[in-house]
Write a structure and sequence with these properties.
There is one protein chain. This protein is an alpha/beta fold and 270 residues long. It has one domain (11-199, 234-263): NAD(P)-binding Rossmann-like Domain (Rossmann fold). The chain contains 8 helices and 7 strands; from the N terminus they run βαβαβαβαβαβαααβ. It has helices at residues 20-31, 43-55, 70-84, 114-142, 163-187, 207-210, 219-226, 240-247; strands at 11-15, 35-40, 59-64, 89-92, 145-150, 191-198, 258-261. Strands 3-2-1-4-5-6-7 form a 7-stranded parallel sheet, with helices on both faces. Helix 3 (70-84) packs parallel to helix 4 (114-142) and helix 4 (114-142) runs parallel beside helix 5.
């Protein structure tokens, strides 16, 4: 019997692939035999990740992208099809936050900068919708494919301060369920759409929010740990198994779900 969890030779496109989580996922999938396309804005970082993957015998390429540009994404797709002829998986991992869309502990809702709020919603939500629109096309043509979006704990619980980010991630969870129905009813059961909702992982974007320069936890970091039954932050590699499962034939009847990987954070009550 074939290995249900195999991702060998699948062409996997990862937006936001140069981040801490994107790199860990790309490296793992390449080790499992996938052909990984890392897309991001930081060419030097992306090319370094590709070099590291190739040095270990994996297959990878890097493309500079802009998840809010239709033209750039169309060119990315053309380059990928030219190299590999198909797209099997799209992992929408691009996202982020900015200070103006966050309410400081001493601030109020009236301090929220609407222009920054809009930028955060655009990056996280529109930056998932637009790549999906572009990379769904070859999946429809080949009658198979898998899309995995990045949701968040902020989509389940209205986590304080991160107003723009939370609104966008809640939208991604809803969009995931919408698209699961949309593509299955119009293009067949061969295309699945799911999401992953990571708990708290230390990344370059949230490091200063959760940890002090000496590595100790901030008040917010300690608050997260208190509400995580595992009593620690996640490790990037701990996302890889769930993502591989959702990509593989083991999840052939799974669509429209948001898989939580959070050390129990979402289940915690008091």
């Amino acid at each position: 019997m074939a290995n249900l969890f195999s991702v060998k030779n699948k062409v996997v496109v990862i937006t936001g692939g140069t981040g801490v989580l994107g790199k860990a996922i790309a490296t793992h999938l390449a080790e499992e035999g996938a052909k990984v396309v890392i897309m991001g804005r930081k060419a030097e970082v992306g090319e370094k990740i590709v070099s590291e993957i190739k040095a270990e015998g994996g297959e990878a390429m890097f493309l500079v992208t802009d998840v809010l540009s239709h033209d750039v994404l169309e060119q990315n797709l053309a380059d990928i099809l030219n190299a590999y002829g198909r797209v099997d998986v799209l992992l929408n991992a691009a996202g982020g936050n900015m200070p103006g869309a966050v309410i400081a502990p001493t601030g109020t809702f009236f301090d929220l900068k609407i222009e920054d709020f809009q930028k955060v919603v655009d990056l996280n939500l529109t930056g998932t919708v637009l790549p999906t629109q572009i990379f769904l096309k070859p999946m429809v043509e080949q009658h198979s494919g898998c899309i995995i979006n990045f949701s968040s704990m902020a989509a389940f619980r209205p986590i304080t301060r991160v107003a723009g980010y939370a609104a966008a991630k809640a939208g991604i969870s809803n969009f995931t369920r919408f698209m699961a129905t949309e593509v299955a009813t119009k293009f067949g059961e061969g295309i699945r759409v799911n999401a992953i909702a990571p708990g708290f992982f230390i990344t370059e974007q949230n490091r200063s929010l959760l940890t002090n320069p000496d590595g100790s936890y901030t008040d917010r970091g300690n608050s997260v740990i208190r509400q995580t039954p595992f009593g620690r932050f996640g490790r990037p590699e701990e996302l890889c198994g769930t993502i591989q499962y959702l990509m593989s034939d083991a999840a052939a009847f799974v669509t429209g779900t948001v898989a939580v990987v959070d050390g129990g954070f979402e289940a915690f009550a008091m």
